[in-house]
């Protein structure tokens, strides 16, 4: 994988025991003005599952799948793993890698889209880790693959999952089915400023809408249906006075039920594994809403370790390595650069150093 001697999987992290829940939530929300009631409420989501988020186990499974795919390609490059909010932390992963002789790594995040929360914040975490290690006399270089939501392989993996679920819908007529694509809500100010700043903004939302519309079109074509997909949001936090992306998935399910919809297909294209935002916010909360209004909820699995997804991530890494060697890489609509533009997806609270960009 010239010039890289390791791949670094970078993720959000999550608690694995009840006593890790509050320290995790304090780390996630440090200095972000999330009201205490919201923190306590989110704590309950985790306690409801024994204080253990599924996210770390899902990343362990992804590491195994990436290893197998790399081995199949004859690539012996090691794969490291570091989180933003729980052990193993990014800094420790890089320090261990350095001790094992690794000097230049390529990062892959478990976030597919462009926005401060899903891209730049990870770039800031990488910069902080590299700076901390520099103080210890450790020099590591980190590159990153660009946001991969627009990649055809990511679309293909999501389509596979969607078709699997849609095929189980038997003879339900189109008028009684709603196809909802769902992602994490973010503050509208964060959405408006998402992207490299050379277009119209709203790149977070536009990337989701582009994927949602191609998945709708393709699944209609394959299944002979005529559904109209739409994008909805989950997991809103922050004070009520601050506008976040809407509609909320629960509100939309209630409205659809009033309009005569009997089955809601919920495809969480904003997430790559069935972590807490999926098993709580969708499978628990949205499922309760659906039950209350008498709607059948069909939740599409996230891409997880689907081979189509794992192969695409490895392709993205191989393309990043080729780019670093000065070779050409395939283009496709919406392709994001691996090196972000200056000011791309800005931090609206504080200017912090970030890696993998031109600023
Ligand atoms: C865009 C986005 C993704 C998708 C991209 C990605 O995957 O990174 C994502 C993922 C996740 N978000 C997660 C958990 C949380 N997110 C929070 C809060 C927030 N998320 C935000 C955005 C996003 N979040 C934002 C703008 C906030 C407000 C505060 C802030 O600006 O930071 C809070 C605080 C409490 C609350 O919910 O208010 C928690 C606990 C978990 C872990 C799940 C698990 O444990 O299994 C995952 C994967
Ligand atoms: Fe979040």
From TrEMBL:
Record's GO cellular component terms: cytoplasm
The keyword Endoplasmic reticulum is assigned to this record: no
Residues passing through the membrane, by range: none
EC number: 4.99.1.9
Keywords, in A-Z order: Cytoplasm, Heme biosynthesis, Iron, Lyase, Metal-binding, Porphyrin biosynthesis
Residues that, per the record, bind Fe-coproporphyrin III: 53, 122
GO MF annotations, alphabetized: ferrochelatase activity; metal ion binding
Primary localisation category: cytoplasm
Functional pathway: Porphyrin-containing compound metabolism; protoheme biosynthesis
Residues involved in Fe(2+) binding: 184, 277
Subcellular location(s) per record: Cytoplasm
Superkingdom of source: Bacteria
Reactions catalysed, as given in the entry: Fe-coproporphyrin III + 2 H(+) = coproporphyrin III + Fe(2+)
Family in the record: Belongs to the ferrochelatase family.
UniProt function note: Involved in coproporphyrin-dependent heme b biosynthesis. Catalyzes the insertion of ferrous iron into coproporphyrin III to form Fe-coproporphyrin III.
This protein's name: Coproporphyrin III ferrochelatase
Lineage of source species: Bacteria, Bacillati, Actinomycetota, Actinomycetes, Micrococcales
Gene giving rise to this polypeptide: cpfC
């Amino acid at each position: 994988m010239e010039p890289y001697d390791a791949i670094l999987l970078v993720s959000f992290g999550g608690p694995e025991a009840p006593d890790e829940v509050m320290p995790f939530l304090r780390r996630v929300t440090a200095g972000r003005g999330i009201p205490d009631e919201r923190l306590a409420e989110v704590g309950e989501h985790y306690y409801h599952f024994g204080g253990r988020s599924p996210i770390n186990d899902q990343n362990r499974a992804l590491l195994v799948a990436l290893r197998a795919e790399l081995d199949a390609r004859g690539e012996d490059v090691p794969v490291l793993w570091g989180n933003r909010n729980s052990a193993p932390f990014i800094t420790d992963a890089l320090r261990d890698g350095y001790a094992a002789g690794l000097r230049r790594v390529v990062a892959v995040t478990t976030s597919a889209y462009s926005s401060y929360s899903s891209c730049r914040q990870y770039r800031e975490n990488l910069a902080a880790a590299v700076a901390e290690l520099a103080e210890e006399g450790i020099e590591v270089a980190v590159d990153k693959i660009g946001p991969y939501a627009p990649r055809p392989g990511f679309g293909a993996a999501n389509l596979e999952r969607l078709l699997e679920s849609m095929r189980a819908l038997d003879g339900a007529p189109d008028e009684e089915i709603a196809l909802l694509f769902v992602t994490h809500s973010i503050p509208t100010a964060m959405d408006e400023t998402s992207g490299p700043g050379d277009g119209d903004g709203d790149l977070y939302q536009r990337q989701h809408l582009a994927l949602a519309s191609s998945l709708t079109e393709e699944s209609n074509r394959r299944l002979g249906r005529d559904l109209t997909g739409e994008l909805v949001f989950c997991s809103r936090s922050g004070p009520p006075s601050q506008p976040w992306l809407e509609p909320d998935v629960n509100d939309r399910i209630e409205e659809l039920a009033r309009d005569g919809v009997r089955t809601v297909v919920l495809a969480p294209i904003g997430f790559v594994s069935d972590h807490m935002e999926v098993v709580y916010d969708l499978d628990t909360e949205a499922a309760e809403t659906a039950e209350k209004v008498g709607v059948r909820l069909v939740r599409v699995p996230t891409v997880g370790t689907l081979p189509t997804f794992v192969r695409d991530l490895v392709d993205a890494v191989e393309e990043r390595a080729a780019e670093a060697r000065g070779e050409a890489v395939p283009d496709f609509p919406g392709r994001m650069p691996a090196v972000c533009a200056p000011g791309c997806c800005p931090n609206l609270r504080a200017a912090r150093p970030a890696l993998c960009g031109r600023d």
